[in-house]
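A favour, since you know our structure tokens better than I do. Go ahead and set the record down below.
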Amino acid sequence: MPPCHPDISYVAPDDDVSGPFESITPGRATLREFLTLYAQFRCVPAGDFTTVYPVEEALLPATGQAWAMASFTLSRDAPFWLAVDSQDGGRLGVFAMTASGHWEVVGIPHAPVGCTTLIPVAIRQLWNMVCPE
């Protein structure tokens, strides 16, 4: 567990969200923002990560709501606890766009990622996320 944790005010997603959705690819500026937000969420310097990869992003054009998931690669200098905690889906971050148009961290899905409740069901279906039962 990280040595600190910021207060997260995000409310769990509404599973009544419905499309049509657009799958989009986040740009470099958005990926840098994800890296900064994820590092703050994990309470580590951004330098503990070398790369951020977009996994998925979805936009609901009718409302401007958006969700994204990104994967983070650890640097060699990252603390051991972060390497351990980054296993089994722990390198993924889930993000949602706020009403003001800013991204915020929703959480870390961990395994099995397809079962996460951090993302609305309709978005998980769009992204073909499967929850083994």
